[in-house]
User: Which sequence fits this backbone?
C-alpha cells in the first residue's frame, strides 16, 4: 500500500534560550512571524544539553549555564512559504544555525496534507 503524501519543507532554527530580537525572546519572535505569515505551524523544542560554534557547553547540569539552553524551532510548510519566511527572518537570526530539509507530510490535522 502506498501512503499518500504532500511534499513540504522543514525549517529548523537552532538558537540559545537567551537569544533576543527587539526586546523579546528570539524563539517567540520567530514563531509569531511564522504565524503572521500564515505558515502551517511551528514548534519550539528545548534541549537539556548542547553546544554550538563557540564549543561552550550549555546544560541543565551546570546551574549558571542553565539559563541559556539550546532551542530548536521546527516549521513545516510548502517550500515557497518556508523560503518567504526565511527571507523575513534573515535580519533576526544572528549566530543561529539554520537548516532546510525536504520532507513528505503524511498527515496535517484531520484533512491530511498541507492547506
Assistant:
Amino acid at each position: 500500500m502506498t501512503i499518500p503524501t504532500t511534499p513540504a519543507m522543514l525549517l529548523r532554527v537552532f538558537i540559545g534560550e537567551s537569544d533576543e530580537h527587539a526586546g523579546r525572546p528570539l524563539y517567540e519572535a520567530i514563531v509569531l512571524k511564522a504565524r503572521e505569515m500564515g505558515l502551517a505551524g511551528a514548534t519550539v523544542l528545548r534541549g537539556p544539553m548542547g553546544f554550538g560554534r563557540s564549543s561552550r557547553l550549555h546544560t541543565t547540569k551546570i546551574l549558571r549555564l542553565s539559563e541559556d539552553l539550546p532551542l530548536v524551532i521546527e516549521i513545516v510548510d510548502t517550500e515557497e512559504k518556508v523560503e518567504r519566511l526565511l527571507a523575513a527572518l534573515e535580519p533576526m537570526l544572528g549566530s543561529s544555525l539554520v537548516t532546510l530539509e525536504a520532507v513528505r507530510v503524511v498527515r496535517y490535522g484531520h484533512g491530511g496534507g498541507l492547506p
